[in-house]
């Protein structure tokens, strides 16, 4: 083989495979970037970060659910029924505030007539850096430029996993409903042993962490949230703090961040409720957070609680500044006086999660 | 802009090659060099635009100084020393100022607030290249180059950010040769093949290992002995495939312009002793230190004790060159001590250990040293070592998950075993294959020298190239990027 022939074959061979790859991904388009599934091609909902942007572009909706994994188990049908709307869920497990900001900004860009936004404001996320990205966001899918589309149409994961799933579903005829899209509740048992299993109990903090310690982080995050609220006065924002379990309160009590968390809860009420287009709900002071049978870990609750949240927001107005007193009473009476030791069976006290990981005999 | 990006592969590289040869074709070799210099600046600016003035100033000042050294007959040495001090001064300010000030403050019990400074990309590489030019001017080893030739030599994009440290006498003559003014099917074939394999090593192998390494280093306390071992081995292999991949890509790109770069990497994990290792790892850096530091210090001409001292100095400098931190200094010192011991043993006896045993001992030593190289601080390195005695058990599933790449998952359908066992198996096989890949086959740099275009090689390159291209999405940076 001559060098010239080698070079020609090499370039043509690579280009042919590239074109084949691009063609396959554009036709199947598992992340809905260019079109909705057509013909017999089935949509499989398996990767929120990739697929949410395409759904934002091509789905019909007038309401949006946005938030972390605690929003994954919301069924859009609940919201459609309770609020008489057409809802799109944009959940980002492991997400940070910049993910939600990117998703919401893009949704408003694609659909300026969004009437309602249901937004989960997780305390853990609000007390983390705006860009504290634990899972990379494919930003190139959240714009209309074709220049960066190579990252989508020449992408091994998209080609093999997403297209593969779609082809498999098409062959087997399996249907995936949008209502069940990205839910994970069927994979777990919600009970106390499961909730306790992965919980690594922190040591008591030796230093006192000031209530103001997280001010800079919280200010930046709240500024981002309020900037979206102010930019869309016609949209009604249903903002809510999800009901983390009592294990979360055990953690913040022991690691010394409890005063900062309380301050955050106050700030959410004082900073968000003055907006006329905001209904803010705080689901932290609820008695069901004490029952670990509602949880799979420190923060993730059962779909029954998701349902309760949706129903509550559809039925009641959000809190106002007078609710701060109730929140404080709850925190003082329940959280601060809770017998946390009673949560832990003896065996878990003897072998905290950190050691269970190391001990294969356990 | 990284070599492993769509923009580079599909736009920047083709545009550079086509533009360069078109300008040569219309008989404008000076324009061709200027064009390639402009492209190199674009490449450099795309990585960090704030560093461009530093690179340009460095080129202009060194070019001017080189001219003056060549012109004068009486002040050669003085001008050369001024030039070297200027270069080291710039390198010192940008790279080492905070490190030295922090340590001086610590010694005097003061607190020091680090100054916020940019670290110009590749500053260690282009500074050393230009120091070598000044020294050669002083020693009459350089000729009068045009500014465009010199600027292109100092900024040529295949090596400006991460080496190899090429000498002007290796690059500029090639830029001048008329036979290199036309595209060569032979060089393009070799270049693209090297690039394809380098890209594959980087994005498919090194980045997979990197994910496991990052997990391990972020969760040292959760590692048991086998997991700690996996983290240590993975980093050793990640570094190999990252650097080998980069070197292959750099050589391949330069070949597309008919430029042969010096070999920088020659299967270092085949080394039978530490001295052999340094003849194979980052060869152009070793060559620079030998020629411009070790030999001027006296090299091995002044007795065994002085030789050992010079060796230690070289390795301490090498450690510091890799980064302004005590971990790098310790890494360099360990290698220096090993080199000294190796030299002392060689002075006493001609006997050698059997190759497998010598190889194993060298490989283990290199692994240990890389832990300090990767560690954020010395304490963390010892923490990782301490995990090696923390008890046996299964490899952490969070660690093994990182080896479940898309291609590995395809095998899942055919291997009906438990998920966690499959992940463990994937991890073990991946590391085993990577170790074999790093230890046995002939490396690409050597293979290029005897390259023969065959159908089988062509088709395997097509598959490898395509596989690497569709593996590009994601976040990855070269390890050898900020030195």
What does this structure look like?
The complex is a heterodimer of chains A (362) and B (483). With 362 residues, chain A is α/β, with parallel strands linked by helices. Chain A contains 15 helices and 5 strands. In chain A, strands 2-1-3-4-5 form a 5-stranded parallel sheet, with helices on both faces. In chain A, helix 2 runs parallel beside helix 4 and helix 3 runs parallel beside helix 12. The C terminus of chain A is likely disordered. Chain B folds into 2 domains: 176 residues, no CATH class; 202 residues, no CATH class. In chain B, helix 8 runs antiparallel to helix 9. Chain B is globular, with a radius of gyration of 23 Å. The C terminus of chain B is likely disordered. Chains A and B meet through helix 1, helix 6, helix 7 and helix 15 of A and helix 8, helix 17 and helix 20 of B.
Considering the chains and any ligands shown, give keywords for the structure.
heterodimer; A: about 350 residues; alpha/beta; five-stranded parallel beta sheet; 15 helices; B: about 475 residues; mainly alpha; disordered C terminus
């Amino acid at each position: 083989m001559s060098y010239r022939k080698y070079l020609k074959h090499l370039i043509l061979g690579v280009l042919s495979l590239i074109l084949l790859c691009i063609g396959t991904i554009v036709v199947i388009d598992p992340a809905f970037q260019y079109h909705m599934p057509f013909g017999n091609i089935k949509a499989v909902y398996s990767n929120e970060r990739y697929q949410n942007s395409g759904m934002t572009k091509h789905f019909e909706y007038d309401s949006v659910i946005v938030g972390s994994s605690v929003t994954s188990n919301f069924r859009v049908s609940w919201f459609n029924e309770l609020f008489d709307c057409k809802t799109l869920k944009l959940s980002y497990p492991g997400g940070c505030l910049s993910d939600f900001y990117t998703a919401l900004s893009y949704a408003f860009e694609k659909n300026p007539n969004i009437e309602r936004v249901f937004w989960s404001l997780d305390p853990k996320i609000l007390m983390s850096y705006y860009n504290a990205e634990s899972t990379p966001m494919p930003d190139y899918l959240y714009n209309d430029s074709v220049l960066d589309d190579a990252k989508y149409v020449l992408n091994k994961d998209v080609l093999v996993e997403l297209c593969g799933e779609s082809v498999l579903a098409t062959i087997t005829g399996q249907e995936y409903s949008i209502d069940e899209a990205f839910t994970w509740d069927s994979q777990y048992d919600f009970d106390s042993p499961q909730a306790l299993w992965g919980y690594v109990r922190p040591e008591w903090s030796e230093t006192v962490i000031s209530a103001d310690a997280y001010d800079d982080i919280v200010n930046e995050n709240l500024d981002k949230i309020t900037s979206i609220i102010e930019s869309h006065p016609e949209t009604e924002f249903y903002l809510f703090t999800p009901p983390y379990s009592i294990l979360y309160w055990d953690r913040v009590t022991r690691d010394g961040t409890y005063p900062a968390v309380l301050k955050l809860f106050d700030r959410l009420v004082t900073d968000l409720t003055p907006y006329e287009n905001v209904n803010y709900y705080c689901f932290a002071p609820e008695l069901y957070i004490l029952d670990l049978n509602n949880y799979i870990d420190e923060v993730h609750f059962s779909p029954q609680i998701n349902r309760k949240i949706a129903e509550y927001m559809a039925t009641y107005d959000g809190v106002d500044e007078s609710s701060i007193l109730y929140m404080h009473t709850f925190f003082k009476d329940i959280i601060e006086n809770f017998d946390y030791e009673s949560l832990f069976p003896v065996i878990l006290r003897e072998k905290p999660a950190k050691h269970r990981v190391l001990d294969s005999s356990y | 802009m990284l070599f492993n990006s769509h923009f580079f592969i599909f736009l920047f590289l083709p545009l550079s090659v086509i533009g360069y040869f078109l300008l040569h074709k219309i008989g404008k070799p000076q324009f061709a060099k200027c064009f390639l210099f402009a492209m190199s600046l674009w490449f450099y600016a795309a990585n960090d635009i704030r560093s461009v003035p530093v690179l340009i100033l460095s080129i202009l000042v060194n070019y001017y100084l080189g001219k003056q050294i060549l012109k004068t007959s009486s002040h050669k040495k003085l001008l050369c020393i001024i030039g070297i001090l200027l270069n080291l001064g710039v390198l010192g300010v940008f790279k080492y100022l905070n490190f030295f000030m922090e340590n001086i403050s610590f010694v005097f019990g003061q607190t020091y607030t680090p100054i916020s400074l940019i670290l110009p990309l590749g500053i260690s590489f282009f500074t050393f290249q230009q120091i070598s030019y000044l020294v050669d001017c002083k020693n009459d080893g350089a000729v009068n180059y045009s500014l465009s030739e010199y600027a292109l030599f100092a900024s040529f994009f295949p090596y400006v950010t991460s080496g190899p440290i090429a000498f002007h006498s290796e690059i500029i003559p090639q830029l001048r040769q008329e036979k290199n003014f036309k595209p060569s099917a032979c060089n393009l074939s070799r270049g693209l093949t090297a690039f394809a394999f380098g890209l594959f090593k980087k994005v498919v192998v090194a980045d997979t290992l990197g994910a496991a390494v990052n997990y391990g280093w972020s969760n040292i306390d959760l590692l048991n002995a086998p997991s700690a071992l996996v983290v240590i081995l993975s980093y050793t292999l990640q570094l190999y495939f990252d650097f080998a991949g980069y070197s292959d890509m750099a050589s391949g790109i330069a070949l597309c312009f008919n430029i042969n770069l010096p070999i920088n990497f020659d299967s270092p994990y085949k080394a039978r002793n530490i001295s052999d290792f340094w003849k194979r790892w980052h060869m152009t850096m070793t060559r620079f230190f030998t020629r411009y530091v070790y030999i001027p210090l006296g090299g091995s001409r002044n007795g065994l004790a002085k030789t050992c001292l010079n060796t230690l100095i070289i390795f301490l400098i090498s450690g510091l060159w890799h980064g302004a931190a005590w971990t790098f200094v310790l890494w360099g010192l360990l290698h220096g001590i090993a080199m000294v011991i190796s030299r002392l043993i060689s002075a006493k006896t001609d006997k050698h250990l059997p190759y497998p045993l010598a190889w194993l001992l060298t490989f283990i030593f290199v692994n240990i040293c890389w832990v300090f190289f990767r560690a954020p601080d010395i304490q963390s390195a010892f923490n990782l070592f301490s995990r090696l005695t923390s008890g046996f058990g299964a490899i952490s599933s969070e660690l093994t998950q990182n080896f479940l790449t898309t291609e590995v998952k395809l095998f899942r359908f055919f291997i009906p075993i438990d998920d966690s066992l499959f992940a463990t198996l994937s991890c073990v096989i991946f590391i085993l294959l990577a170790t074999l890949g790093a230890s046995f086959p002939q490396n690409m740099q050597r293979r290029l020298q005897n390259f023969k275009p065959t159908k089988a090689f062509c088709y395997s390159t097509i598959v490898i190239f395509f596989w690497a291209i569709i593996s590009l999405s994601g976040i990855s940076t070269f390890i050898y990027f900020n030195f």
